[in-house]
Structures are given as structure tokens and as C-alpha cells.
Amino acid sequence: MEQKEIELLKLLEKNGRMDNDTISKMLDVSSAEVDEMIKKLEKEHAILGYSTLVDWSNVYEYEGVAALIDVKVTPVRGVGFDKIASRIYRFPEVKAVYLMSGAYDLSVSVEGKTMMEVSRFVSDKLSTLDTVLSTTTHFILKKYKHDGIIFDEGDDDDKRIMVTP
């Protein structure tokens, strides 16, 4: 992969809405070359999609729960962890699955409407898979930074009430 393509990927990763004219100026190439690079990178599956990062805590009346689940599994001979990871990421509640080093094998990011919905997913769907040995669920209480974006930046005021004896 060429250096300009890597620079293009870094720019799009930070801002997927950046227009080709701006990118062409930043990379010192023509707008047509940018368009060709993007088409090539999409065809090669280096660019898999474009998304928007939303701070759901600022969306009025949105109630949702996110959790990270550590999963210990028995790998399958010949395919390792890929087969079980594939079964897990096909559930609609699952947003991401990562193979990890350490005490657990997989880290699974899950979203649901309520804590009960997430816990039912773990008990009814995830834990019942034949190669899953154990799970540990961590509910996300607040996001401070995600994909390099800081949430609530500039809100440094301490809103706790001082308590004195």
C-alpha cells in the first residue's frame, strides 16, 4: 500500500465526511486521484464503511445500555477461535468482537435497551454456546473517550457537593 493511501485512510478515519477537494489539498494530489484511491481501498476492503460517532447521553429520551463481556472459550481444532467468534458476532445485540490476550479469549461489545435485555442475551444466547466456558459482564456507566473522540470536553467543573464533618 502506498504512503498516500495510508495518509488518506488516516484522514478518513478521523473525519469520514471530509470532501475530496480538501483531501486532495492535504495530500497534494488531484481530486480525481483521491476518488480513485477511495474506490480502490473500498474494493480491497481496507475501507469497510463510514459511520458517525454519536454521544447517546445527549440524545433526549434515549435509553440504552452497553456492556463489554469477557468470554473464555474452548478453541475448535483447525479453526481456533474464528468459528466461535463468527457465531457470536452474528447476534444482532453484538456490536464488536475482539480476540484478546490474557485471562479471557474474546471481548464482546453488546448493546441493548435495558440491563435485563443484555443479561438475557448473556444467559440465554452467549453462555449456552457449546464452546463458551465462562463470561464476565461489565456494564458501561459512562463514556469519556471513544475512537479518539473525547466526550464532555471542556466540562472540567467538579459538580460534586462538598461534604464537611
From TrEMBL:
<keyword id="KW-0238">DNA-binding</keyword>
<dbReference type="InterPro" id="IPR019888">
    <property type="entry name" value="Tscrpt_reg_AsnC-like"/>
</dbReference>
<dbReference type="InterPro" id="IPR050684">
    <property type="entry name" value="HTH-Siroheme_Decarb"/>
</dbReference>
<protein>
    <submittedName>
        <fullName>DNA-binding transcriptional regulator, Lrp family</fullName>
    </submittedName>
</protein>
<dbReference type="InterPro" id="IPR019887">
    <property type="entry name" value="Tscrpt_reg_AsnC/Lrp_C"/>
</dbReference>
<dbReference type="GO" id="GO:0043565">
    <property type="term" value="F:sequence-specific DNA binding"/>
</dbReference>
<keyword id="KW-0805">Transcription regulation</keyword>
<dbReference type="InterPro" id="IPR011008">
    <property type="entry name" value="Dimeric_a/b-barrel"/>
</dbReference>
<feature type="domain" description="HTH asnC-type">
    <location>
        <begin position="1"/>
        <end position="82"/>
    </location>
</feature>
<dbReference type="InterPro" id="IPR036388">
    <property type="entry name" value="WH-like_DNA-bd_sf"/>
</dbReference>
<keyword id="KW-0804">Transcription</keyword>
<dbReference type="InterPro" id="IPR000485">
    <property type="entry name" value="AsnC-type_HTH_dom"/>
</dbReference>
<dbReference type="Pfam" id="PF13412">
    <property type="entry name" value="HTH_24"/>
</dbReference>
<dbReference type="Pfam" id="PF01037">
    <property type="entry name" value="AsnC_trans_reg"/>
</dbReference>
<dbReference type="InterPro" id="IPR036390">
    <property type="entry name" value="WH_DNA-bd_sf"/>
</dbReference>
